Amino acid sequence: MWKGKRVCSALALGFASSSAWAQSHHHHHSGAGPGIASVPAAVGGGGGSYRFPFFSSIGPNGLPFTYVPAMPMIVPVSFLPSFGPPHAAGVGVAGPWPGDVVPRPIPAADTPKPRRTDPTRSVQLVTFGDRLFRAGNIHRAAERFEQAMNADQNAATPRVRLAQIALVRGQYAEAAHRYREAMTADPGWLINAPDIQSIYGEPSDFSKQIAKLEAHLQAHPNDRDAWFVLGAQWYLSGQSRKAADVFLRLTDREVDATLAAFLDASTPRRPGPQ
Questions:
Q1: What separation in angstroms does the CA of 261 have from each of 220, 222, 234, 247?
Q2: What is the CATH number of the domain that holds 244?
Q3: Which of 210, 220, 237, 274 has the lowest tally of Cβ within 10 angstroms?
């Protein structure tokens, strides 16, 4: 019997005069605390729409409680005049209401950060790295080339130098990757590419690396990256015909923009009509 009375009381107080409820509620609470929001309501033609109406009553422990349903509730207009909207006297319920919450700003789409460019510092680091490479200090040379690449991310030269580091270490896939990075950083670098042999202490040091690469290809003739690196080494040492022969054998396998650029640069130009 008590439960029935309390349920009826909850329904009645939820839509009854808010001033009476507020007075009863004020008896237990001196005021609304943080996060209190007024209950909004709208009356439309044919029905009144309470956004999240509340129900309140006195619990078994003698303390008031407020219950807010999870979904909006439609109340007939004819039902409203005898009771009055609960928000009329500013009745408060705990928690912010969806319509009163300031929407969180939608973060803007990530935009690519501009590339760092300090060409002077990059050139200096490449020069230091070349000296170390020529002296046989491969590890420290690689560090300088990495620093040069980070100083100017639009520069191809540090990446070409890192390809030489990978060549000396026998990491041919890595060397091919560095050449492709160089093409991405500066698509026009092949036009003015210097002779790569100049960073080796002796011509025989360069020849030794080519011989090691060719021996690898004899044992692994299907290593496409190694073939590509061989062609790049020929081209960057001024032997364009040898380079073109290597690149031509790779063009029928798959599309490769860097390979196409090397092939185009190494193919002799036919003289135009006079």
A1: 25, 22, 14, 10
A2: 1.25.40.10
A3: 274
